[in-house]
Amino acid sequence: MNVQQLFLLSVFLYVAGALGSLAMNRVGKAANYVSAISTFTAAIAGLISTIIVLVRETPIVTELSGFVPFARFTIEMDHLSAFMILVISLLAAATAIFTLTYDDQYVGKNAGIFGFLNNSYILSMVLAVASSNAFYFLVFWEIMTLASYFLVVVKQDEEAIHSGFVYFAVAHAAATAIIISFVVLFLYTGSFSFTDFRSVEISQATKNLVFLLSFIGFGTKAGIVPFHIWLPRTYSSAPSTVSALMSTKVAIYGLIRVGVDFLGASVWWWGLTVLTIGAISAFLGILYASGENDLSRQLAYSSTENVGIILMGIGVGMIGVASGQPVLGVLGILAGLYHLLNHAVFKGLLFLGTGSIIYRIGTKNMEEMGGLAKQMPWTGFAFLTGALAISAIPPLNGFVSEWFLYQSLFMAGKSDIMTFKVLSPLFAVMLALTGALAAMCFVKAYGVTFVGPFRSDRAREAREVPVPMIAGMVILVAGCIVLGLGAPMIAPYIGIVASALLGTNPVWVSDDMMVFPGSNSQAMLSTPLMFLLLIGLVMFSLFIVWIQGGMKAGRRIDSVPWACGYAYSSRMAATANAFVQPLRILFHPIYLLRNALIGLGNKIASYSKQAVDYIDRLELIWENNIYGLLARGMFHLGKRVQVIQVGNVQVYCMYIIITLVVLLITTVR
């Protein structure tokens, strides 16, 4: 089976899973199994096809009949598309296993519809990044938005409905900007083909317009500041598996495709704009995340932070292209894409861990958790791995991509352009500050949630989640480890994606167990060696403990913590609010800005209630004045027609003959 057949098999399995689960909606559990198994097999087929494309460097193009005369439906899996489909497929496979048990809460509540929407959402993401035509890209983009909207409001509670309305409104405002940018390109090319978009000759002012429109549109959908108001609401209301899938950040693909692939990143201020907005989003995102006690909202704000880090890499890459530094361009894009992949893995893992907690104790409030590492050890280990990875702790994957970003910023600082010389070190400092706040944020998340005393009876009574949910998390735990330790093998392939996108020669970024930023004279990193040193440090520490008499020598007879002579109470444990109190004081003006943005989101959400009330009134008008009138008319007509129902078979036969004669005469005429 070749690459094209594998990809088409993946598409077919997503479609079959969507229709199969919908058909079995009333069966309940069976619909859940059909959806999960089809999603997993489709994801594996898609994963294999993308790996073949990336390893063999053989892009595939499949042209199908277009549904509209002016747009051919073309599937083109180049390096960038293959990379994005790999990201989507990896998360789809993990969430599919997770949902085997997690979706039990939807059995009897239209589980088949949930499975249909889930498969449709994943398929629309895959086809959006695989489409080589702007018309069909927008079609699948809209399907993706609609499917994710219905997945957000699937719980049908007031919070979910209002959150879904905010998401729907912001997503379509973003889509408007994207559509206008594509229409401008269409007016100059007379085609929606991506191939024609790449070769279009337009003025610099028009290029600037297209770039800004696409940046606003895709950036809003990705969750950049200040257009991130939909993120905390949506991620908090959506099922955890849906939030995990949203971590793929397809919007970043759209921005790269337009800004770099179509327009060639030809102006240096484009890259500086992306880099600046990315740095601001990263800093504010993690600052807002630190102030949250709602675990889902904390992860949502953290997504804004990581989108900012990804955009910093993309921005540096665009600066490298515009300034004629191809190595810097490749390194920046490599850092951005590597972090995009890493973010999907560790953020997906954290969302699944959060889903496991909610599944067992029914709350997202960290103040009602505590001590869960004892009750849910596998979930605790998975969440800890994700927390370490997102905090860029070596040798896990988050550290590697941020290391490449630091190196690209240092290289940009050597540029002949004074602006980059001055600003690059400042952006590196902002990245360092963001990393420090991220570590603090996830020390709080793990510490308050999993260690310390139980903070509620629900936490005390919690137990580990079922095996399928653990297996889904373990896949992503393995991803965090492999993408970190395997960086010397993985980074070159992501570098090939970046160099193919820019049309330059591949950049040398690894040798044996080392990775480096184009030259080993600037810096070198070996995550396998760091792992061995860390293992050695742990073994040495255990050896010292053994010499001193083993674990029992330092163990207290009673396990009650020392409380300065007072009787210990669980109320003495550090709370989530206590962690961030210094930040609230230090960055008080910034938190006021967040409150203003939350108020804007609440105002948009209030429109949903007004819209629902208005629709209810329209429905009453329709029912009383139109539907009721038609119903009464049909009732009276039925009474009149009953006259011909005489109960005589011979008369009925005569009716049939008369009808046939009338039809025959009509046909002949």
Could you characterize what this model shows?
Helix content is 74%, strand content 3%. It is mostly helical. A hairpin with a 2-residue loop joins strand 1 (60-68) and strand 2. The protein is globular and about 105 Å long.
Low-confidence sequence ranges: none
The termini sit apart by: 56 Å
Task: Estimate what percentage of residues fall within beta strands.
Answer: under 5%
Major sheet: arrangement of strands: 1-2
Main sheet: strands, sense, barrel: 2 strands, antiparallel
> What letter string, H or E per element, gives the SSE order?
HHEEHHHHHHHHHHHHHHHHHHHEEHHHH
Question: Which keywords apply here?
Answer:
669 residues, mainly alpha, two-stranded antiparallel ribbon, 25 helices, 3% strand, globular
Draw up the topology in text.
Elements: H1 3-23, H2 29-56, E1 60-68, E2 71-77, H3 79-102, H4 111-130, H5 134-152, H6 158-189, H7 194-198, H8 204-222, H9 230-237, H10 240-246, H11 250-262, H12 268-290, H13 295-322, H14 326-361, H15 372-375, H16 377-390, H17 397-412, H18 418-450, H19 457-460, H20 467-485, H21 487-502, E3 510-511, E4 514-515, H22 527-547, H23 576-586, H24 588-641, H25 649-668
Antiparallel strand pairs: 1-2, 3-4
